[in-house]
Write a structure and sequence with these properties.
The protein is of the alpha/beta class. The chain has a single domain (about 10-55, about 65-235), classed as Alpha-Beta Barrel (TIM Barrel). The chain contains 5 helices and 10 strands. It has a 7-stranded mixed barrel. Strand 9 (about 215-225) and strand 10 form a beta hairpin. Helix 2 runs parallel beside helix 3 and helix 3 (about 105-120) packs across helix 5.
Length: about 240
């Protein structure tokens, strides 16, 4: 008797935009890759975030074998600004962050920036968020490294409330928002998709939040010596 396991795998492939490195990060390269990717049928375009390139970092970079920060990160475009520019030069390809370290940003400001991208792109935004691992970036953001998981739980609740509630009010341990109108609201309903990405199991926060949040998997690749990452989404049914 033979037993078999049948898996239907739906693989969506995206590309990282050329937003790092003085020679690669140009408006011409971004326009070219965004349009070519859309015409070729790729699912999505992605950007990363780094605040600083510390000369003497507290932590090794977990994405390289030797722990060194990639030199091209010394020159890097703002992630949401880059995606907004890409949105203006495309019409259907999905636009995501991989990832924005949410705790480095005021949640109201970041929620509005994502919502603005979603409106201007006509519903193509994905909020790929992480907790951050660099103590140097936590220091420059004036955010304590301690309790970052608990802080992130509140942050995710706030993002969803801002994107869905007509009147937003929040009282927590780390964040407070008085009853307010906060717009614009995203086009996507009930809210912009939220993906969590990171290098360890500690990336995830409160298990109750994961019901509406997907995990983002980063797969290193080299494409024509230019693009450092392919982003893969595997849905196994």
């Amino acid at each position: 008797m033979t037993y078999g396991i049948h898996l239907l795998v739906n693989m969506q492939v995206g590309l990282r935009l050329p937003q790092t490195g003085r020679n690669l990060a140009t408006k011409e390269n971004i326009i070219y890759l965004a349009k070519q990717a859309e015409n070729a049928g790729f699912n999505s375009l992605w950007v990363l975030e780094r605040l600083i390139w510390p000369i003497n970092p507290h932590d090794k970079y977990p994405g390289t074998i030797d722990g060194k920060f990639p030199e091209e990160w010394q020159y890097i475009f703002d992630p949401l600004g880059t995606l907004t520019f890409a949105a203006a030069n495309t019409s259907k390809i999905v636009l995501g962050t991989s990832v924005i370290d949410m705790l480095f940003h005021n949640p109201v400001i970041l929620a509005r920036r994502f919502a603005t991208l979603d409106v201007l792109s006509e519903g193509r935004a994905i909020a790929g968020c992480g907790l951050g691992w660099s103590k140097d970036e936590y220091e420059v953001s004036s955010i304590p490294f301690k309790d970052r998981g608990k802080r992130a739980d509140e942050y995710l609740q706030i993002l969803k409330k801002i994107w869905t509630d007509d009147i937003v009010e929040y009282r927590g341990q780390f964040y407070d928002i008085p009853a307010s109108k906060i717009g614009p609201k995203p086009i996507q309903k009930p809210h912009i998709p939220i993906y969590l990405g990171g290098y360890s199991q500690n990336t995830t926060t409160d298990g109750d939040m994961i019901n509406s949040i997907k995990m983002l998997h980063l797969v290193p690749r080299v494409i024509m010596g230019v693009l450092p990452y392919l982003i893969l989404f595997l849905n196994i049914k």
